[in-house]
């Protein structure tokens, strides 16, 4: 049984505060007015009253009980995995977990659910597979009550401790990519290529670069030969553009197969990106990007590239799992990744 004694503030001078006390002034301030452990001074009494505190707690923890600050420290330690960091400074009972490097946020969603089902502990995170920057807040955790049952926190720690940690940030491999721009209209100079620049920019944003660019008409043999030229030059990732849909001249898929691709999965439940293809030649991922990749600012490629650079293998299941949230809203001003697309 948790025992909490209350005492009127004007009788509390000289006593130690058992928890942080928050002040909120609309549009101006939200933060800690008094820190846990603060010894109440005579001048504090009026301030505490302005915060609506007529009484404060004096805590007596039993052997089976735990204070919010200790619980937050135990939870953060159990939850935070590779590529994350946090400060031991517990603010308002909560510890914030941040990315220690640029990379891809990975959340073990099943374990997170199990932990949050316990009820009196919580952990809130950004979405699984969100690209994050070093120093960015990715999660926060705390005990819900001021004093809780130690048993419950121990249980949460056990859930978080089973196998990989629940919250991780994986660094992205920096690769030299090869681009194969397909389409007879581009190859024969009927129109100017618009794909190379788009793909260079996208790869550069993730810390990778384009090492080689080859062009091929709508001919499977020639597409295969240019993919091979990329491999010969040491490309660690190959992206082809265009020729992925239903016209007789859309033969990029055949070219990729002809080049020796394995584990080929064609079609994804993502818009834009329905005609996307993922495969590999040896250890080199080969991605077939439909022409929407040049038109829309964010497509299936932006959702998958960070995962591929983080070392993930993408197959039918991983693609199928993207259907929920896979519909882009085509906002006038794109806010990705701060949006529901791909979540
Ligand atoms: N009846 C159907 N029509 C379409 C389907 C479908 O399933 N049934 N799929 C749609 C989807 S989804 C996409 S995405 C687009 C484009 O698919 P493709 O990858 O086959 O694109 P292409 O046919 O090669 O080209 C379309 C368009 O884009 C221009 N393009 C292509 N590459 C370049 C480049 N490097 N630089 C500049 N412009 C390029 C090309 O000239 C065409 O105008 O198909 C939907 N239609
Ligand atoms: O491959 Mo298309 O994106 O669905 O426009």
Characterization of this structure:
The protein is of the alpha+beta class and 343 residues long. It has 3 domains: 3-60, Molybdopterin biosynthesis moea protein, domain 2; 65-170, Alpha-Beta Complex (Aldehyde Oxidoreductase, domain 3); 176-323, 3-Layer(aba) Sandwich (Molybdenum Cofactor Biosythetic Enzyme, Chain A). It contains 11 helices and 19 strands. The protein has a 6-stranded mixed beta sheet with strand order 15-14-16-19-18-17, with helices on both faces. A 4-stranded antiparallel beta sheet has the order 6-7-11-9. A hairpin with a 3-residue loop joins strand 2 (21-25) and strand 3. The two termini are 42 Å apart.
Outline the secondary-structure elements:
Elements: E1 3-8, E2 21-25, E3 29-34, H1 44-50, E4 55-60, E5 65-67, H2 68-79, E6 84-86, E7 94-99, E8 103-107, H3 109-116, E9 121-125, E10 131-132, E11 137-143, E12 147-149, H4 150-161, E13 167-170, E14 176-182, H5 184-187, H6 195-205, E15 209-216, H7 220-232, E16 237-241, H8 252-258, E17 262-266, E18 277-281, E19 284-289, H9 292-295, H10 300-309, H11 316-320
The protein binds ligand LQZAQKY5 and molybdate ion.
Quickly describe the structure.
By secondary structure, this protein is of the alpha+beta class. Helix content is 27%, strand content 28%. One of its GO terms (cellular component) is cytosol.
């Amino acid at each position: 049984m948790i025992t909490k004694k209350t005492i009127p503030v004007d009788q509390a001078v000289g006593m130690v505060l058992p928890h942080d006390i928050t002040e909120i002034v609309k549009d101006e301030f939200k933060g800690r007015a008094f820190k846990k452990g603060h010894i109440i001074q005579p001048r504090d009494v009026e301030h505490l009253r302005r915060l609506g505190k007529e009484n404060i707690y004096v805590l007596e923890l039993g052997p089976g009980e735990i204070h919010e600050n200790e619980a937050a420290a135990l939870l953060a330690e159990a939850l935070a995995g590779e590529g994350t960091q946090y400060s031991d400074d517990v603010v308002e009972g909560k510890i914030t977990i941040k990315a220690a490097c640029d990379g891809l946020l990975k959340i073990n969603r099943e374990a997170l659910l199990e932990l949050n089902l316990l009820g009196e502990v919580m952990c809130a995170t950004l979405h699984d597979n969100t690209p994050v920057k070093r120093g960015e807040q990715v999660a926060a955790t705390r005990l819900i009550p001021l004093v809780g049952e130690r048993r419950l926190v121990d249980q949460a720690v056990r859930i978080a401790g089973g196998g990989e940690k629940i919250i991780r940030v994986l660094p992205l491999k920096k690769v030299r990519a090869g681009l194969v721009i397909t389409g007879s209209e581009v190859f024969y100079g009927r129109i100017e290529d618009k794909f190379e620049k788009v793909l260079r920019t996208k790869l550069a944003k993730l810390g990778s670069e384009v090492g080689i660019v080859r062009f091929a008409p709508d001919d499977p043999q020639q597409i295969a030969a240019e993919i091979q030229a990329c491999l010969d030059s040491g490309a660690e990732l190959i992206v082809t553009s265009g020729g992925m849909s239903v016209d007789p001249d859309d033969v990029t898929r055949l070219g990729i197969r002809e080049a020796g691709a394995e584990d080929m999965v064609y079609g994804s439940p993502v818009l834009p990106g329905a005609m996307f293809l993922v495969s590999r030649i040896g250890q080199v991922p080969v991605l077939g990007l439909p022409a929407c990749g040049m038109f829309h600012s964010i497509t299936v490629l932006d959702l998958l590239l960070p995962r591929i650079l983080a070392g993930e293998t993408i197959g039918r299941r991983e693609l199928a799992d993207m259907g929920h949230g896979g519909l882009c809203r085509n906002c006038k001003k794109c806010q990705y990744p701060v949006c529901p697309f791909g979540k």
